[in-house]
Specification:
single chain, about 300 residues, mainly alpha, two-stranded antiparallel sheet, 2 strands, globular
Length: about 300
């Protein structure tokens, strides 16, 4: 097994984990703190990617496009909450699932009408397209390192806001007892509206930074939403720390499993059996882990103290 390939795949796993965290962080805020099941969260990932793609092509600047697309996605999330979501908080989870599934179809159709059925790809700035030599024997794309750095920075910022600031204290208090905090004069509906919009912006940011590698395409949020739910179940619903650690675990398991599981299986079974079963088994690993967590520790690895 090539050592350089192992290092590259480890970094790819961390990059995948960081992207999952950006989606899962907003999802765990909305689900864990507001007790709202939002299946349309993946659509916000898609919307962020399309907004950034359009601005990049129009302005010929990826960084300026991100700077403008972030508040735009925040506003989209705010409007969605104000027009649709706020009416569903006191409904049961089945109603929330059905309503937000309908929003997925609406957003996919709107994107089709505005941008067409084909995806949008856009280039990175030349200085982001280079390779970086790591440890003297591994060349790794600079842009993927920037994704990792961006995600870790967001994680630190979110943790600081939730744990160390007055706003974070109000959010945690509202999650614990919204009736009491409303009685103390806090506009809990407005607070939760900003929480929802922030979660939308985080999901949109993930779509913005992955689209240059893949492309902005209709339905791109569906797959990432499923794995984001797995992440928050493993990490603990409502826990930012749990979302980060679980995202990295899932990213590493998924990437390393797809890359090396067949080689490991060849040590104990025939080559044909390993090559046949390894792809299916590698795709199942994160779900097997989720099932084990649900059985042995149903509250997740790092449940929030307020729950």
């Amino acid at each position: 097994m090539d050592g350089a390939l192992v290092v590259v795949q480890l970094l790819n796993g961390i990059q995948l984990g960081v992207l999952l965290f950006l989606v899962a962080a907003g999802l765990t805020l909305v689900f864990g703190i507001m007790d709202f099941v939002n299946l349309a969260h993946g659509a916000l990932y898609m919307i962020g990617a399309f907004i950034c793609a359009s601005l990049t092509l129009a302005l010929d600047s990826f960084l300026i496009a991100i700077a403008l697309a972030l508040p735009a996605t925040f506003i989209v999330g705010y409007l969605i909450e104000r027009v649709f979501i706020c009416h569903l908080y006191h409904r049961d989870h089945l109603d929330q699932v059905l309503a937000t599934f309908g929003l997925i179809l609406v957003f996919d159709t709107l994107v089709h009408m505005l941008w067409g059925p084909a995806g949008i790809s856009y280039p990175l700035p030349n200085w982001m397209n280079g390779q970086v030599n790591l440890f003297g024997f591994v060349d790794f794309p600079l842009y993927r390192l920037l994704i990792i750095f961006s995600g870790i920075t967001v994680a630190i910022g979110l943790y600081f806001v939730i744990v160390r600031t007055k706003t974070g204290m109000l959010i945690r208090a509202g999650a614990s007892n919204r009736t009491m905090i409303s009685a103390l004069g806090v506009n809990i509906n407005q607070l939760f509206r900003y929480v929802f919009a922030t979660g939308a912006m985080l999901a949109g940011f993930a779509g913005m930074i992955i689209a240059p590698i893949t492309e902005a395409s209709i339905g791109m949020g569906s797959d990432v939403l499923l794995i984001a739910f797995v992440v928050i179940i493993i990490g603990g619903i409502g826990s930012i720390r749990g979302a980060l650690i679980a995202s990295l675990i899932v990213g590493l398991i998924d990437t390393m499993g797809r890359s090396f599981l067949d080689d490991l299986m060849k040590l104990v079974v025939s080559n044909q059996a390993a090559e046949t079963s390894a792809p299916a088994l590698s795709a199942m690993l994160v779900y097997i882990l989720m099932a084990a967590i649900l059985f042995f520790r149903p509250q997740g690895l790092f449940p929030p103290k307020t729950r």
